[in-house]
Amino acid sequence: MRVVAGVDPHPDPLPRTGEGGVGLRSDGQPVVLEHSRAPEKMAADKVRCEACPVLCQISPGKLGACDRYGNVDGVLTRLDTLALVARPGTDLVAWQAAQQGEWDGSLVAADAPVFVSGIGSGTTYPDYKPAPFIVASQHEGVDMVTVVTEGIFSYCSFKVKIDTDRYLGPEQATVRHRGEAVGHVSTIEYGSQFLALGGVHHLTGGSKKEGRIACEMMMALGNREPVELQIEGGASVIVAADKPPIVDGVEEQRMRVGCGSATIGIFAPQWFGHADEVVVIDDHITGVLSEHQAGKFLDMAPTGIRLRGRKSTPGRYFQVANPGSGWGGTDIVDPLTIVEGWDARHGARPGLRMLMVSTTGEDSAWFVLDDQLVPRPAEMPLEVQRVVDRIGENCEPSLCSVLYVAGAGGSLRAGVTDNPVRLTRSIKSLLVNVTCGGAPVYVWPGGGITVMVDVAKMPAMSFGSVPTPAIVSPIEFTMRLADYRALGGHMDRVRRLDEVLAPGAYRVVDAAPGNPWPLGVVRGSGR
Predict the structure, then answer these.
(1) Which of 276, 372, 423, 514 is the most buried (most CB within 10 A)?
(2) C-alpha span between 491 and 318 (Å, rounded)
């Protein structure tokens, strides 16, 4: 790796000492350094980085393992550029020009056109040091502070929602990547299947190879790159955020419109008069129109059909087939295999018209009973085909959603305040807005600060890693300046936004469509 030329050093660097990384300020308080005296066995031209537990010994012109810090002429220097999230409808150049006048000594700058994200900010692990950037700005006349850092997370994972009826594997089955266990199959939710991937046990609880591959997989998922996974007893699937899943080499197109029973309920009036029987095949609940309550409301005549499976309520059948990649998420290739027979005493008759269709409309067939009550394939009437097409029209595109979950506890909070529990309580009281790369997060209830964020809402390439192994990801805490002071924040490290931007070591990214402006959702900070 090479040092990137033209990038300004870490702003406001802390002074060096020769002993142990701690010096004294003029007021007698300790000054914590980002690096300490080189160990005796380390080459004299190297510098040691103490931003994380890896303690990289960095040669001249090289970067550390996180790609954030490097050795520039014997000085430990932050080399990655900050990522600024642009506020829609604002002009950063014009705003900066307006800041060139004389500074009046205030901590804030007028309404900020950008939000300083944690991407590229660097870490301060263990966080007895203040966060790398504590930025003062203003939103609609309210003085704000955003504490910006990149956390090093071992306690983190990804929840992957896969919109498909195709069988991926049994619940609790191990998920592997490049042969190593990296997660497991979770529950199926209406039309989607979930995987739980990563987590501390895979990162640190197994072999070194398992931890390394799990970390590589997690970083790729967070950065929206495709990842191939093998599910024990199931399918091979390629997933990437906001992309269709590829199951056993076939790209999925549609998410089911509903279960078989729901499909009957939605389209029953449109089939009425054009078909005598409709069977919607589904792995979970297969629907039979003539028996279903929707058919009863339409006063449809019974057809005498006898279906495999376990009957639930009228017109709803469980376990008509095994899970698979066939019709409606079953292993069915020939739909007639689920029909056990016809009973003339209960409505079966020659000429009876039957549609069999899947929950996505991708599979369908039309049959007519002959004189021996045997269903024979026939050409589907145009009116029936239109309804089958409408099923497909009502199916949403099949996508993978990747949600990042991380526990922002431990010493990370000390980079924000000298009394960490106040930060936790302020977040739960909605006085502090938590974001990841400027993207909104869901903060789980209960103890601690457990956040969940859609990686598709974060800027591209938001995730990194260190060889611990652990994931490096951005996190920001935004609040009113008065609230930051009250919770024991590091007020002596607060810096104006225009001061942070002055060196020019930043890049600007657009906020994802629909993301709220992070400074605008803090209680009391304006609309």
Answers:
(1) 423
(2) 62
